[in-house]
Amino acid sequence: MSRELVNEICAAQPGAEWSDPWGGGHDCWKVGGKIFAMVGTVGTHLSVKTDSIEMATLLIETGVAERARYLHRSWVALPLDAAPDEIAHRIRHSYRLVRAGLTRKAQAALPPL
């Protein structure tokens, strides 16, 4: 999957916003000001949130993902050449997790799912 396709999937999530908070060419996707997906400047991996450290460990141990550098242990880095349906699923899941963690007020300000 290409970086452009990842960006299309992320942009399709209700209320998603793109930024490059550190400069240098990051694709950082946020909902309600919180990151749900990110591709670094090198652009070989997509970092997404999982629902737990245990799930992240399982994905890493089964070879689906790697540990996402610089992020909490519940985040994983999927290679961009992974199966497109797996990447799309992980982006949508990460988005829903992050959105659900927002305050009620922040959630109410977003477009409906």
From TrEMBL:
Superkingdom classification of source: Bacteria
GO molecular function: DNA binding
Pfam families for the chain: YjbR (PF04237)
Claim: Membrane is one of the keywords in the record: no
InterPro entries the UniProt entry points to: YjbR-like_sf (IPR038056), YjbR/MT2646/Rv2570-like (IPR058532)
UniProtKB keywords: DNA-binding
Name by which UniProt lists this protein: MmcQ/YjbR family DNA-binding protein
